[in-house]
Design goal:
Blueprint: H1 3-14, H2 16-31, H3 35-52, H4 55-92, H5 99-125, H6 130-153, H7 159-182, H8 187-212, H9 220-233, H10 235-257, E1 262-263, E2 269-270, H11 272-282, H12 285-312, H13 317-358, H14 367-392, H15 396-417, H16 427-449, H17 451-471
Antiparallel strand pairs: 1-2
Helix pairs in contact: 1-2, 1-12, 2-12, 3-4, 3-7, 4-5, 4-6, 4-8, 4-9, 4-10, 5-6, 5-9, 6-8, 7-8, 9-10, 10-15, 11-14, 12-13, 12-14, 13-14, 14-15, 14-16, 15-16
């Protein structure tokens, strides 16, 4: 699934300084998915809406977007990672014909899950009127489907087409919300206008993917059943992905639900003292994501593929041990380099926080939250790096364990930090990510240190499982 990463790596290596900059910038856009562009789009839409219309409408639209993104990510996580595994297995087994049906099955499962959860949150929890509930459900479903197809498109080389799909949809969404603002429409109308832009991106991305996999779409119903079966088969991946995604939002949700959270006139719950600086602090992860996509994932994939080729060619045990040691050292070196870079980026954000306050991007009382979040991003990147290694090495139980540590560490630390006041709001995220990073590094080190034994035992378990399914 590292197709785009290999293309960007080639651009960075062969394109000189300019190629490297373009590769990292492109990687940042691809790795952050539609999230980064939506932030820009909603920011522009909100600024125009506040200038020509009601600022309260712009705020409601912003909160609807935040809720939709949170709901879509949490609702789709449990199905999307097993679906990705199923797709990757199909490519490895040279069965690309299943790709189109699997994509549409992912749309059905993730879109339905996001729409259902959004209906519950907007309708039952927030007590929003029907038009807001229906719009929120559609909004969340579209976001979930865009994330699904974006994940699948990571296997293709059409970088320019993918980026154009993002940009055109974002531009259409922004223009649509501006028109709604000029017509003095409400937040649901702005959300629908932006959702129309999402639909354009979704259609374009589907076209890109089907262009790379031009196979007839077989029974989507069968593909849905197969996908749901893979959720059960890869249950540790599924549960781990859900907990890891929930962990990202855990500190935010706890503060929203605490006495420090606020409910606006439209009934949306938020915590402005935490949300904005936490968001700015999380932006420090974007360069790390880009470097992960362009350099780290491709390096791990290439080394692991070389090791598997040796196994399939019945190489001598000594040769396998040497290859395992090289993979171990290469992976840890990559983790060390990316972590060091992320530390530098986090320090830049720490010193930039007071400057952001002087420029009125955040309040002075929010500086500490942005700084703590930026430091937490270092630990969060370590979780992502170690989790990627565990997934590639099929250590799904350990992957699930790491995400559980991240989630419950964040919940516990956030609960303990709430009485300390607003200056320590970001401690929950930092502490939870630190605990998860430690668990992730120890787990990855353990598996890498016993790589050959882990691979052979994993193969034996898969054969035993396959035989059991055949008997049943």
């Amino acid at each position: 699934m590292a197709g785009i990463g290999f293309r960007l790596e080639r651009l960075a290596v062969e394109g000189g300084l300019a190629g490297g900059i373009i590769a990292v910038f492109t990687g940042a856009l691809l790795a952050s998915g539609y999230y980064l562009l939506t932030i820009f789009g909603v920011g522009v839409s909100g600024a125009v809406s506040r200038a020509v219309g009601d600022p309260a409408v712009a705020e409601d639209f912003r909160l609807m977007t935040i809720y939709a993104f949170a709901i879509a990510s949490i609702a789709s996580a449990a199905a999307l990672l097993p679906a990705t595994r199923q797709f990757a297995d199909a490519l490895y087994e040279r069965k690309p014909g299943v790709a189109p049906a699997l994509l549409f099955a992912s749309f059905v499962v993730t879109g339905a899950a996001a729409a259902l959860l959004a209906a519950i949150v907007f309708g039952a929890v927030l007590r929003q009127p029907p038009e807001v509930t229906v719009t929120g459900a559609l909004y969340a479903a579209l976001i979930a489907m865009i994330w699904a197809v974006s994940t699948y498109c990571s296997a293709v080389f059409a970088i320019r087409a993918v980026l154009m799909s993002y940009f055109v949809g974002t531009l259409a969404g922004v223009l649509g919300t501006i028109v709604v603002s000029l017509m003095e429409g409400g937040a649901p109308a702005m959300a629908l206008a932006y959702a129309a832009g999402l639909s354009i991106s979704l259609g374009a991305l589907v076209s890109v993917f089907l262009g790379a996999f031009p196979f007839p779409i077989k029974s989507v119903r069968t593909a849905v059943a197969t996908l749901l079966g893979s959720v059960s088969q890869f249950r540790f991946l599924s549960v781990g992905a859900f907990m890891g995604t929930l962990a990202i939002w855990a500190s935010t949700l706890m503060i929203w639900l605490s006495e420090d959270g606020e409910t606006n006139a439209s009934g949306f719950r938020a915590a402005e003292l935490y949300d904005t600086p936490h968001f700015f602090g999380l932006l420090s992860l974007v360069p790390g994501f880009a470097l992960l996509l362009v350099f780290f994932e491709t390096s791990v994939f290439r080394s692991l593929r070389r090791h598997h080729d040796l196994i399939e060619s019945h190489a001598a045990l000594e040769e396998l041990e040497t290859s395992a040691e090289e993979l171990h050292s290469t992976t840890l070196r990559g983790i060390t380099i990316l972590t060091a870079i992320q530390v530098v980026i986090a320090i830049v954000f720490v010193f930039a926080a007071p400057i952001a306050a002087e420029a009125n991007f955040i309040q002075l009382r929010q500086v500490s939250v942005m700084q703590i979040t930026a430091l937490g991003s270092v630990m969060h990147l370590l979780i992502i790096l170690s989790s990627m290694v565990l997934i590639y090495l099929d250590a799904s139980r350990l992957f699930c364990f790491v995400q559980a540590v991240f989630l419950f560490g964040t919940i516990t630390a956030s609960g303990l930090a709430l009485p300390l006041g607003e200056r320590f709001f970001g401690i929950g995220y930092l502490a939870g990510a630190s605990a998860g990073a430690l668990a992730g590094l120890l787990s990855a080190q353990h598996v890498l240190g016993q790589l050959n034994a882990h691979i052979f035992m994993g193969a034996a378990r898969r054969v035993h499982s396959a035989l059991g399914r055949l008997r049943s």
